[in-house]
Amino acid sequence: MRHKDEQWEKEIRKEPFASSPFTEDHKLKVLQQVEWMKKSEEVSKGDSGESRSRSSRSSRPQVGNVSHKRRPKRGPLVAGTGALVIAAGLFLWIWDDGQLVKPVIEQVYPTAALQLSDGLNTNLLTDKMKRNVATTMRDDLGKQLKITKVEDLPVSGRIYVEAGSESEKEYAQIWLDATTGNLREVQMRREMQPSELEHRYLRQVPSLLLSIGSTPTLKPASVQRFVSMKQGESEPISHTTLALENETGYGEIVWQQDEAVSITGDLSPDQISQAALTDARNAIEALSGKANLDLVRASRSKDDELGKDTVFFSFKDNYFVQMTEGKAGMGYTVGDANHYEQDFADWEEIEAYYQELYNIQESLLRGEVEPIIKKIFKMDLQAYKLHRNPDHPGMVTFELESSKDVFQVEYREDGRIKMITRGEL
């Protein structure tokens, strides 16, 4: 037996897998899987078809929407008979565009990768349920979490499966139809290191940043993934958020399934519109009275889900301008981000302060805001009616009854203006 072990270990280390990692832990898992295969002939026959097509998961019909596309699955990298070939094949890993990502055993026999806590009533789970749980965590979350609860919900006709811990960063809840074994609802989350993110995402980062005029040198910093499927939906949908940063800036990319739907990043100096920058400086001067403030940061955010393209300018002394082009039209915000501390002894003083904000005289507000709006937007507010909202003291809106043109204004207790937003409210 030892002689055979040495043979298949040597086989694994041959080309093209010479550079692949192979540790004692890998070896132990291979031997465990070989033993499992010997004792699970029935399961292996039931699951073997899953390596050929994702369509075999009957609860997860293929959907024509492009955003639901899945990467193609590769089959085992070696085939044959005998203990040497089986052991070597179990060790070999699936390639994902140049990156070793998953062991073959998890691809061919996904239920073999299920991790179960002690004391679970696994009799509630049919083979089909186990396959659906395993493939959902594998394909959508990208990791098999240990199952900690299996519960029958007879009133709703469901089986509930919980994995991980609600208080931890990795957690999954899956509801299955008790009769058919099909997925009904899914809620999963996971945080991972950038090095754990699949290569098909990482390879997109430089080109996606360049597509919005950002610097491609931003580096991955952290990753969060959320997966959800509501009652009536046919497929779980995953959102993967990659935070990026370098010494001077930051960015973010969000994927729905494998498609980037939101990209944010610092603008390269040569990608900053000088006309927009001049306009922003003039807006800050109109708000604050300070001219030619130094630019601290310029960034762009393009969100296809919300249908918005936003450019953000941050200036010295915590002033900012945000320009948005969206489905609802143009949006423009100029603001003072400085925080002015208010010392309150108790809730009565806080309530009195809010009441003071709410009751500020309209004439005082108009006297403060009208000159600013006239300088920035070349408009007169006289025809606009002021509306207050008791739930938001310190904020009012000016609206034209005959149009959707709206100005939202935030102010301090003395009437000084903190922020003005036009459109995109």
From TrEMBL:
The segment annotated Disordered runs over 39-74
In the UniProt record, does the keyword Membrane occur? Answer: yes
Q: Which UniProt keywords apply?
A: Membrane, Transmembrane, Transmembrane helix
Which residues span the membrane? 77-95
Highest taxon of the source? Bacteria
Basic and acidic residues compositional bias: what residue ranges? 39-53
Q: What is this protein called?
A: PepSY domain-containing protein
